[in-house]
Amino acid sequence: MKFSIRHILVVVMVVFTTSVSFAQPGKADKVEALKVSFITEKINLTPQEAQNFWPLYNEYNDKIKFTRKAFRQQYANVNDFKSDKEADDYLAAELKLRQTEVDLQKEYFDKFKKILGSKKTGLLRKAEEEFKKEVLKIFKGNGNDS
Amino acid sequence: MNNRRQLIFCLVVLGLYLGLSSSFYAQSDSTAAKKVKKVKEPKHFFNHTIFLDSYYKPPADLMKPNGKLDTGRIAKQLGQYSIQQSCISFYSPLVTINNYNRDSSVNSNFHLLLAGTAYYLQPRFSGISEHTLAKYGMGIRAIYNTGKRSIFFIESTPFLTQDITPGSSDKGSWRMSGTLLWSYSPGPRFNFRLGATKSFLWGNRWYLPFIGVRFGRLDRLNFSVQFPRNISLNLPLGNVFRLSLYSKPQGGVFSFSNRDTVYDNRYYKNTNISNDQVIHFGRYELLTGFRMDVVPCRWFNFYLSTGFSTKNGITFYSNSFNKNNKGRYGDFYAAAPKNSVFVNFGLVFRIGRSKSYYNNTNMYDVVDLNNSVDPGDNNINPGNGTITIPKKKLPKSLKPSEIQDLIDANDF
To answer: Does the model's pTM come out above 0.90?
Structure first.
């Protein structure tokens, strides 16, 4: 089958319009990337600190993310509970989620402190909170007030 | 016949459109559609990656290497030359071992990947029948990131080249390409690579040193020279578009059915060998141009590239004449097609989840190394679409699904 430039252009246009129209899932990644830039700016890491810190921070972030995702997948579509047991399971799962998050924070803050020291680890937490506020501002600006 | 081709093309485009649409739509609404299942952390840093590449060069006259038109017997027989190639390649992580030292200050990791390629080349000579030359390769690559400054890379891809034109009696020839590299980064803004490669990219069997140097971070403007693979100036234009100005060789050595008697023993009386059923076709060109990568999301990107193809060369090698030759093949015909433009287009799909490596410059180098040395010695780079370009501005609007991993209900 012979392809002409016209055929290639049609394929390019189809792929381009499709990808631009459905590019939404990438935004979450971009927010994540922006968070990384935001933190980098705020805590001013040396190249050595950055080299050691970011792999660990990504690992910590992934663990938090996938713990939350697991919980969300289980309960995202649940709007009502058919029994007390179901509600109890939900409450227990939520407490377990919080506990897991706290355990992870404890574990990783200790690790961060070994690389960055306490001051920069404290600044990291502050930067994370500040970034959250920035994101919330935009989110609320969309008319998504909760 | 022509209508049938048009119909097939339309169906392919429609399939592509529907496939892409549904996959993107499924991504955006995944939480609602999926049933409850356990979410596991990803094991690997690499996604399963499939990339398709298409390349076209219009017809050009064949010249002798000194620039004069080749009026020899074979040149007359061959006529004008054009080329079209398409390729589908993949790499897939098999094993990832991620280690921290005791105080968690050094993160080293080892990656074992399966890589493969199916490559189809159609060199079109106006004077002889059409040939479709295939190359099928499958290999293993291992990458060890020490977590400090060094990365070690080894890959080997045995491949089969075969003239798959209907009626061809070619049973194929096995070849092996491979690369061994040491990459060293004193800091994120500078990297050099040293190693060796066995490659057919320059239209013959070459054992070459691999010498690479990069100035600039991989997620920002950088200039990279990776001999013998490419020279490139890479410029990220925001998070979605990435522009690259580059120069790279492209080529290979392929089995070529001698049914048109390109190799005719009567003209080589001193060689005491019979006419070959199959000969080898070597081809190379130096592509210089620009490439635009569009990275709308982590799961997909595509690229469009165009420029000039210069330093073109084609060669034919007799199979039996080179039977015991362990070094470079000796040719019985060589010519230099005239310079021309080229068009190149590619799609890259990434499947599955992967560990995050934002701002992890060692991992950026691991990813770049893996992409620079593609499976099957085709020198087709899927691009560093998974290396996130630092962003300065927050998007103007956000949906709950985009921030759900950052924000907790109690934060409102």
So the answer is: no
